[in-house]
Write a structure and sequence with these properties.
The protein is an alpha/beta fold. It has helices spanning about 40-55, 75-90, 90-110, 125-135, 175-185, and strands spanning about 5-10, 15-20, 30-35, 55-60, 110-120, 140-145, 160-165, 190-195. The protein has an 8-stranded mixed β-sheet with strand order 1-2-4-3-5-6-7-8, with helices on both faces. Helix 3 crosses helix 4. It starts with a strand and ends in a 20-residue tail after the last strand.
């Protein structure tokens, strides 16, 4: 699979890029794929292509564009430190507005038919949660989302299905944080939480160790 970069208009002016990939059938339901702190790098594009192979139209917006467009980092210690620096400067609230603009573009694509879900990893896992709370996305999946417990006041705004996957040994999402999130959604039949044991195969970056290749 090979996708393409498309332009996404920002509601407050300007534009940013998103990586779009389409299934072999040419159409399907949509996934708004939300990045890790490493940008929409080759690993994230591989994830997008994987979901396209499974039948989804996938759009991965560059949510770091307001700091620096086109950031693509690897997983070395030096790149991790650089990525963490971007993370510290990152405006999550503004990024959800950008994600909402990307969601509109995805829904408007002729290839995108049916519903659209938000899915993200690490930083993107939290953004998937916030996107579910603040937009009309139909469902959301968070893989090892970091810091969600700080925004559980928005949980009531989520109307659609919400799934959380966490890694057993993820030091960025400790057990107490995971339990807070799990408790906030415990009474919702359409929401599930899974703790994936250590030793299974990660799909995205280094924080992903400890979960198997996901499906939305």
């Amino acid at each position: 699979m090979a996708g393409q970069w498309i332009d996404i208009a920002a509601a407050d002016g300007g534009s940013f890029k998103g990586y779009l990939t389409v299934p072999p059938s040419g159409s399907g339901p949509g996934i708004l794929l939300l990045q890790e702190i490493f940008g929409v790098n080759s690993s994230m594009r591989d994830v997008a292509d994987y979901y396209a192979e499974e039948g989804y139209v996938v759009l991965a917006p560059d949510l770091f564009w307001r700091m620096e467009p086109g950031i693509e980092l690897g997983y070395s210690e030096a790149d991790f430190n650089k990525a963490f620096g971007y993370y510290q400067r990152f405006d999550a609230n503004q990024s959800i507005k950008d994600a909402a603009d990307a969601l509109k573009v995805l829904r408007a694509r002729t290839e995108c038919i049916g519903k659209v879900g938000a899915l993200g990893f690490c930083l993107g896992g939290k953004l998937a949660y916030l996107t579910a709370a603040r937009t009309d996305v139909d469902c959301a999946v968070s893989y090892y989302g970091v810091g969600i417990e700080a925004d559980l006041g928005e949980a009531a705004q989520i109307k659609g299905p919400m799934v959380f996957h966490v890694a057993e040994l993820d030091r960025f999402a400790p057990p107490e944080a995971r339990e807070q999130v799990k408790a906030a959604f415990a009474t919702r039949a359409a929401s599930k939480s899974y703790c994936n044991p250590a030793g299974t195969t990660p799909l995205a970056g280094p924080e992903g160790r400890g979960f198997t290749k996901p499906a939305p």
